[in-house]
Amino acid sequence: MCLFVRGCRALLINALQKSGDSFPLATTSGRVLGKALRSSQSSIKPVYVSVGHRITLDTAVRLTHNCCLYRVPEPIRQADIRSREYLRCNFLTSDIT
């Protein structure tokens, strides 16, 4: 695989044609570290998925893809939205001195 050769990664990302397409991310020795996933049809940049505790890489990719309404998986997207709202409500001050 040529994943870490300059320019080759861009070719692989462009090869992700439809939602759910992925390719493995491997070291030069061939060890697979994760996969790049096109999470939704409208996304341009892939989401990078790696294995977790007691879950295979293919299961992690499938689960991540099923959680994506947009580019970012929905649990992460909701956590980001709610944390920003909390900060805006509790720490935003209009008194700038």
TrEMBL record:
* UniProt keyword annotations, A-Z: Cytoplasm, Endonuclease, Hydrolase, Nuclease
Q: From what superkingdom does this record's organism come?
A: Eukaryota
State the Pfam families in the record: Endonuclease_5
Q: Which organism is it from?
A: Cirrhinus molitorella
Phosphoprotein as a keyword? no
Q: What is its main location?
A: cytoplasm
Where in the cell does this protein reside? Cytoplasm
Q: What is this protein called?
A: Endonuclease V
- InterPro entries from the entry? Endonuclease-V
